[in-house]
Amino acid sequence: MMQPPAVIRVGQARVTAGLDRYARLDLGAHRSVFGAAPKLTAAELITLCEQVDLRGRGGAAFPVARKLRAVLARKRRPVVVVNGSEGEPGSAKDKTLLARSPYLVLDGALLVARAIRAREVVVAVTGQGPAAQSVADAVATDRACSAIVRVVAVPDRFVSGESSALVNAISGGAALPSGTKVRAADSGVHGHPTYLSNAETFAQIAVLAMLGPEGYASAGPAHEPGTVLLTVGGSVAQTAIVETPADVPLGHILDICGARPPQGVLVGGYHGMWLAPEVAYHVPVSRAGLTAAGGMLGAGVVLVLGEETCPLGEVSRIAGYLASQSSGQCGPCKLGLPAVARSLAAITAGAGGVDELEAVRRATARVRGRGACHHPDGTANFVASALDVFARDLTEHMFRGTCGRPAAGVLPLDAGYGETRLTVDWTRCQGHGLCAHLVPELIHLDENGFPAFLDVPVPFWLSKNARQAEDMCPALALRLSTATAAAPRPRPKARPVQPAPIAALTSGRDPAPDPDEPPTLTGRALRSAELNAASAWLAELGSGRRPSRPWS
Amino acid sequence: MHFRPPAAVAEVGQVRPASRARTAAILAVPALSLLIPALAVEVASAGGTSQLTRICAAVARFLLFYSGVFALIALTAAVAAGLLATDRLVMSPERRILAQALHRTMSLIGISALANHILLEIMAHRASIADGFIPFMDARSTLYMGLGTLSSDLFVVIIVTGILRRRFARGAGRWLWRAIHATAYAAWPLGILHGLLAGRTAKPYVDWSYGGCVAAVGLALTVRYIVASRGRNSAARAPLRSPLPLPPDPAATAEALAEYFAARQHMPAPMTTAHLHPAVRRSLPPPSWYEPADHPAGQDRR
What we know:
In chain A, 39% of the residues lie in helices and 13% in strands. Chain A is α/β, with parallel strands linked by helices. Chain A folds into four domains: 6-217, NADH-ubiquinone oxidoreductase 51kDa subunit (Rossmann fold, 3-Layer(aba) Sandwich), CATH 3.40.50.11540; 227-307, Roll (Ubiquitin-like (UB roll)), CATH 3.10.20.600; 418-495, Alpha-Beta Plaits (2-Layer Sandwich); 502-543, no CATH class. A six-stranded mixed sheet of chain A has the order 1-7-6-10-8-9. In chain A, helix 4 (93-100) packs across helix 5, helix 5 (102-115) crosses helix 9 and helix 17 (391-400) crosses helix 21 (528-543). By secondary structure, chain B is mostly helical. Chain B has two domains: 27-233, Four Helix Bundle (Hemerythrin (Met), subunit A), CATH 1.20.120; 250-299, no CATH class. Chain B is 66% helix and 1% strand. Chain B contains 14 helices and one strand, in the order E-H-H-H-H-H-H-H-H-H-H-H-H-H-H. The radius of gyration of chain B is 32 Å and the shape is extended. The interface between A and B is large, with 73 and 46 residues. Strand 4 (149-154) of chain A pairs parallel with strand 1 of chain B.
């Protein structure tokens, strides 16, 4: 993130305590705010976590106590891994905690390490940013830490933060998810049982140990005691880390963060679900509340999509990103996600009809549960819920070609994303079509036999194929360009003749219908009532019921 | 935020990037292949009667006898595969990729065998060092030996620029690259002339085979030239099935539609015109032609 996010608290500050006064809590400031963490035995720690039903905050919400038990059940001495990699571009809470309050996370990690008699603590961060520097500095300063804690940097990719990818990276391999599902608690870093949680979880453990179960549960409802850390971004005044007790309405938090009127709200990050605005404003922020509303809390990412941007364009952009962030290990994921992104891009560009929509639905359904990690499922959730929430925008794109707004790039992406791209010299390309066979993930042939590119950078696992395609292009037209500065040429916007502005079309005030005008499904802008009817029809089509007759 | 001088954070989990020294790696293949004859000749000429010496002498003799033949066969295959890889008439993209891979492999084998051939001829004192690189330099060199040198020089240039093809694609040197690569059609017949006439007398079937190869490549080149010159008009490239669309046969169409509907019956949204605007529906042909009567979509209209 360019600008460090603001830290806002609703009610009492817990893990973000002291951040209103200090840019970064050094050791002295940390002790003055939090005091010293108590030393606990394994049994005490497990009881404590069970009393408040503490869950992991990385997204899966796995009970901490159960994970600790699983680690302790093994004979070998365990390893503690603090996952601060946070591959999710929309999330910043772990990075903020590590950058500004590193000792709280380290306190939690050391507390767990002492309790389970760990041989080592590894803090994994991405890159060499402020979080890495801050935590490395903290470890070097605190004598108690430097003996046992090691800080490592993993590549900044979406799947790097997956637990098996992280364990592989720390064990000396590539940061890629494992093919066979082995729990880190059974066999993790170098085969040792590994307690792995994200940075916020360790901060919560430290706070829990300091406050005791009653003190900890004094905030939040009985079913989910304590506080939740959210990262609120998108169409807001400033990206903010919000610490709030559970069950506060999401609308309250969005108001605090200065969210613009949304078309949809994404909860749970890019593996999460879209909520319609009327739902999003009333849903309580808790695992139970969000799940009941058809969303998920996940890692606490909340992204607001304002009226100023084209939602389908944004979703298609992120779908492309997610497709390129596959690690290319599992076939259904590495071919299925680009197919989803391609169909979405076609609909967004106005080049896709009902067949493309069906293709998206089919492709998302097809990738579910067919990979070593959660990536295909999460992406399917993201796309499928977007199609439901943005049904109206979808209709406009399918029947009119565009909604008239550009995709403004409201949803955040990694800064380093987009280095190498496949480009073509169109004056040379003669549609030989070899590239589409060599890199089917990124290149498809259009109906004229010319390549159509998925608008994403070449992922590392395709670089060899892409180079081969460049080498084999008979017309010497295909190129792998690594220039970061050269922005992709802006696409000409497909803008059909618009008899009335969007606002008038959508406000319900219809221009008087002209009975003699021949109705068409393309070319001419549909009137509001027709759009609504088409939208309802599409929703029915998606829900599997037989379509009724919207226009008769 | 201010920190002390940045502490080193160990980087882990990087995926090993693909090798960058690709050209060097490819050229190492012919270079390494030279070790075999060099060692064989070295050991054989050291004298002695051990088993190893006899084996080495046999290997050296074999390579001296055949490496030129192998070079010519491999380069012939490379020329043919390269020509085949450009074809759009009978070759599908998948096969063209295979043909290109074959083209590259054969070129590499060919240049390795060629290097062996030159080295062994020089070591056997049948040619001077100058003969290996500069045509017609040595006073003793014959016309056909000189042609061989010329051909091998051209092939080296073609293959090295072939490995560096990507550089030409990036710059404006596309036509330069094409021109250099097209000299293969000159270098190859020169190589054949050298192979058939410079050394021992070839058997008749060898003469006939190379003659056939030259004729086939010549024919393929002619076809390629004609197709390419016609294909400049992009419309002509589209596969032409029928000059005019045939008028639809209503019975066959209805049958195909019925099959289509039958296949879709289990699907959530059967093909129906119900969602269309009434005016659009009115403009459709009558249902008897368009929708089978026994399908719900057809009944919908009645």
